Amino acid sequence: MPKKNRTYNLIPVTVLLFIPVLIFGGALLEDPIVEESETLAQTMNTQNGLPTPIKISNSGAPSSTPLVVADSGGSAYVIWSEGIGGKRHVFYNTNRGDSWGNPVNTSSDIKIGGSGPWPDFAIDTAGRLHYVLTAISDYPNYEVFYKQYTDNQWLRSLNISNTAEPDSGGSACPSIATSPTNNNCYSVWYDDIYTPDRWHLYFTYKSGGSWSRARALSVDNGTYTPEIDVDGNGRAHLIWIKRRKGSSVVWYSSNSNPTNLNSWTSAISISGDSNEDWCEPDIAVDNKGNIHISWIQNKGGNREIYVRSRINGTWGDRRNVSNTPTKSYLPRIAVDRNSGDVYVVWQERTGGKWQIYFVYSQDGKWSATSAITKNSSESVTPDLYVDQSGEVHIVYSDNSSGGYNIWYVSTKELGQIISVLYPPLNVRINTALDGSPDKKKNIVTWKKNSANDNESVKSYKIYRKLVSHGVSAYKLRTTVDKSTSRFEERTLSVNYKYSYVITTLNNDGEESDHSNEVSEPLVYPPVSLSTESALDDTKTKKINIITWKRNPRNDSTVKNYKIYRKEEGDTAYKEIKTVSGSVNTYHDNNLPTGKKYVYRLSAVDKNNRECEPSFSTYEEYVFPPINMNLRTVLNEGLYFSEKINRMKWKRNPLNDPVNVAKYSIYRKKAEEKKTSYVRVFEDLEKAFEFWDRNLPFDEKYSYALTSVCENGAESKLSNSRVEK
Questions:
Q1: What is the Cα 35 distance to its own chain's centre?
Q2: Which of 498, 519, 540 is where one domain is finished?
């Protein structure tokens, strides 16, 4: 059962359209059993030994986090998140009929907010498609919505969480599964309806035509990112994480009668401490009820993909199935429900790029790690599904064609796709002065990687670049024999900081990915950047107030911060100001209201060495109106008396770069909390005025406004105006 892809800062936010995310530890285990993979017998075209991917989104808009399922005939169905005009949507495509069609927007009837949509996807035995996602209800509030594809059409979205009440929280990260015994649908998510930021698991099911009332499961609060799947006997299997002090633990429970909330078994810990704040667990079960769970494990500072299985009722050991020296993220696990073969994909940071990696298990024996992609582009957020014939369907997002698009590959027998040659391990650097105050020496050491066949290893290549430069700036310094594990550079200038990586070469001239990067000490960029925009006293110019925090990793003193700025849409930043390292705010004054700006900062140490830039901070997309005025008027006649609240406002000049289509007026009783505001009227940017009539004399009201753009983007609520 494919599960939602959550995301890190791995690709630009405009591509990811991002979400909160998740990750945890325990006793480190022995390496898994590895058997030599057989030669790949592809049922599809190949290129340079790789499966040939098919681009299936092809819209020009940033597309990410795909999910795939397949029917009994082997046809694949894919959904993904896509950003259009600043708004997010969930798109769909299929190769049913032997060719991929045009992508379809399935979420045009709902509004996806600043967080989410975190979709999850399932298919039942009748070939009907089902997915759930997080979107905004009419309150507004984050809710779980359900979509079904049947009779060649996507039905309207249905709110199945229905937790939007005053003071209630949001419904997030839903998961969905279908039962092969009766095609019941089950959905679970986490919600803070009781107390803000105290999260509980909520569950609902559909048996026939309607969904049950959502109810809380009897597990502790502080639970996140549930995933559900159903085996061939109709038993539901559920995992989730609990987080504490920067780590998380994967928990598991099951229910042989999922419509009975009292039948869930006592929860057990699967992962132990993962040492990752969000460990991104996933689950897959087969027809016999065997269970396979994957997650991210922080192993001595390196992220690895771990799997634990329950076969014939017995839980096995936790296994490191990635076993790579570089970062492994976003694991997705699937199982051939008939044979029990297990497949795992994830994204791996190799050679300065994200690539898709793969491993599988047959009869309890795990293959060596292989690569699905191996190119100069970024390949991220994979998902996979195994259909009834054993065909493996894989999707991922990749920017090889310019922007990020969704790509699809499949194969009947997915053996070792690319034989991986591993870089050396434990690369370290030691820097010291070399005979004078202006010269230094760098000593780089490493250890051979035991995962390589030592007989096939020929030599190592050492690459160097300036710390402030990108990965593409690495230049070869030297090649050394495989018996060597030390490289020394002398008489280097102390005015420059260097980074190093090492690769392994074999006798056939093939070269591994880069080792872990080692760098000389350097200050780090500031964190928690934000931009607040305001009008100056003349109401004709804009002021952008940029704030930041000192990076806690900066053990050395930051002398200065350099502030860089560009207009939205431009590619190049320009330095606009250098400020003291003791300040954490900057006012960018006298800006035109018709342009939007993006900022980023770097830190400079006491030797005037500048670090890499920070993440960018953006202006708000749209702003609420200004100069709001509320006046209460009595309309008295001979036989009646009427109270009227008259609201007036003006257009905000900060909205010059966007197209404001209308204003929404929100109202609540004066004594109610801010979360009680309800939209009562929309003005199509004509009168800039609203008359609220026939109001009770014994009640006072509070009003707030928002600006709404043509593309549906809505500003924050304005400051309130309360009836006197």
A1: 33
A2: 519
Same domain, 294 and 352: yes
Say how many C-beta atoms besides its own lie within 10 A of residue 443's C-beta. 14
| Residue 367 identity | S
Say how far apart CA 178 and CA 212 lie, in whole Å: 15
Note the Cα 80 to chain centre separation in Å.
Answer: 12
Amino acid of residue 188: V
Domain boundary among 487, 519, 551: 519
Residues 440/433, Cβ–Cβ less than 8 Å: yes
> In this predicted structure, what is the pLDDT of residue 13?
31
Tokens read off for 699: 């009640």
CB 37 within 8 A of CB 370: yes
Same domain, 119 and 166: yes
pLDDT lower than 50: segments of the chain: 1-49, 413-418
The span from the CA of 646 to the CA of 698, in Å, is 17
The answer to whether the Cα torsion of 572, 574, 578, 582 is positive or negative is negative
Q: 353-362 and 365-367: which strand pairing? A: antiparallel
pLDDT at 85: 73
- How would you write 4-68 as a 3-class SS string? CCCCCCCCCHHHHCCCCCCCCCCCCCCCCCEECCCECECCCCEECCEECCEECCCCCCCEEEEEE
Containing structural domain, residue 588 = 527-618
Does the residue 2 lie in any domain?
Answer: no
What whole-number distance in Å separates Cα of residue 237 and Cα of residue 333?
14
> Which secondary-structure segment (H or E) carries 261?
none
pLDDT of residue 165: 59
Query: In angstroms, what CA-CA distances link 115 with 11, 20, 111, 147, 284?
Result: 16, 7, 11, 19, 26
- pTM for this entry: 0.57
Determine the Cα–Cα distance for residues 106 and 124; give it in Å rounded to an integer: 19
For residue 531, the surrounding DSSP H or E stretch is strand 527-535
Residue 22 confidence (pLDDT)? 28
Compute the distance between CA of residue 616 and CA of residue 600 in angstroms, rounded to an integer.
5
Q: Which residues on adjacent β-strands are paired with residue 308? A: 293
Kind plus residue range of the DSSP H or E element containing 13? helix 13-16
The CATH number of the domain holding residue 489 is: 2.60.40.10
Domain count, the chain: 4
Structural contact between residues 243 and 191, judged by C-beta atoms closer than 8 angstroms: no
